[in-house]
Design a protein that fits this description.
346 residues; alpha+beta; 60s Ribosomal Protein L30, Chain: A; six-stranded mixed beta sheet; 5 helices; 21 strands; 33% strand; binds 3-(2-carboxyethyl)benzoic acid; Chorismatase FkbO/Hyg5-like N-terminal domain-containing protein; RutC-like_sf; FkbO_Hyg5-like_N
């Protein structure tokens, strides 16, 4: 149970722990993401759980990243989005197949069209439920680095995402949500998100050009995400750090060297944490108090990445290691993190 007053808690649980009906098992759960290969999630739990086909690298069968809150909750569905909300936070997720045929004359590829439609549904939902802002998006789809319709699929995703922000009158710079975008082994586009009624602050990294300002050598549209989002909910400062890679300025560093890429990514996370602490001086975010998800392109790099993480932070941390394609072909690792909430490893 989430202690009274706890606005947000993160648990990493074996999927079997979720198999009971939500009312006896996880009354406080907003929802979450289950990782395994192949994907499994127990929908009988009555929770919005995104079943992502993505191999876990430490030998576990399946793990669910579950977000909980002490507030009273209700569930709903909207255009294929399964969501659950309290008074402060809403978690939702969806799985969308890419259209097999696009409308003639529609210049959009199927992933671009599916992405735009998914994001437009999400924005419609949160507006209708009275939520201003999305704190965090998680994006998973197959073949991120594959070219189709003359464009790399990650770049198609970026166009669809940005068009949805624009068509809903949302800014595509500044206080945009934190995010990650990774290649799954699944067949469909999957998006999960955490929305709040409060206004979050987008945090940028002084070592990196903001992703929304990337030059067009990385695609015709810049990605719409901030390096982190910071929000105060019921007196708690919460920090959601986007997927972070070995990029300085806008360039990939250390191509082919997974150790150096891991260290560079952690330098970037440290810089984001420092920037967040300047904006929320009381929060005291520290690398050793965050929960991490680590996406590794090649399973054989697990040992190197885990060692580099431990050495850099200097203490064991809550971390889940997954095999996933990263959105630039020369990136070998991407690390996301969050903090300020309770963390209870399963
Ligand atoms: C980067 O910094 C690495 O498109 O939502 C990291 C986090 C990355 C989020 C996204 C992409 C995204 O550009 C890639």
């Amino acid at each position: 149970m989430t202690p009274p007053g706890d606005i947000l808690r993160l648990d990493y649980l074996p999927v079997a722990r979720l198999a009971q009906p939500a009312r006896d098992g996880w009354p406080d759960a907003l929802g979450g993401l289950c990782f395994s290969h192949p994907a499994i999630a127990d929908e009988a739990a009555g929770l919005p759980l995104l079943a992502v086909d993505m191999p876990l690298l430490e030998g576990q069968d399946a793990i669910c990243e579950v977000w909980s809150t002490a507030e009273a909750l209700r569930s709903g569905r909207h255009q294929g989005i399964h969501y659950r909300e309290g008074d402060t936070l809403l978690f939702g997720c969806l799985t969308r197949d890419e259209p097999t045929r696009v409308t003639p004359g529609d210049g959009r590829g199927p992933l671009q069209a599916a992405t735009q439609a998914a994001y437009e549904s999400i924005f419609e939902l949160i507006q209708s439920r009275g939520y201003h802002a999305i704190l965090r998006f998680w994006n998973y789809f197959p073949g991120v680095n594959r070219v189709s319709h003359h464009l790399e699929r990650y770049r198609q995703f970026n166009i669809g995402r940005q068009d949805a922000f624009l068509s809903h009158g949302r800014s595509v710079i500044g206080n945009v949500p934190a995010a990650c975008a990774l290649g799954s082994a699944g067949a469909a586009l999957q998006v999960a998100f955490l929305a709040a009624r409060a206004d979050p602050l987008g945090i940028e990294n002084p070592r990196q050009i903001s992703a929304y300002d990337y030059p067009n050598q990385y695609g015709p549209r810049s990605p719409t995400f901030s390096r982190a989002s910071l929000v105060n909910l019921r007196g708690r400062d919460l920090l959601f750090i986007s997927g972070t890679a070995s990029i300085v300025g806008h360039q990939t560093l250390h191509a082919g060297d997974v150790d150096a890429q891991t260290r560079e990514s952690l330098h970037n996370i440290a810089a984001v944490v420092a920037a967040a602490n300047r904006r929320a001086p009381g929060a005291g975010f520290r690398l050793c108090n965050l929960a991490y998800k680590v996406y590794i392109r090649y399973a054989g790099d697990l040992v190197s990445v885990r060692r580099a993480l431990l050495e850099f932070i200097g203490a064991p941390v809550a971390a889940v290691f997954l095999q996933a394609d990263v959105c630039r072909a020369d990136l070998l690792v991407e690390i996301e993190a969050s903090g300020g909430h309770a963390i209870a490893p399963g």
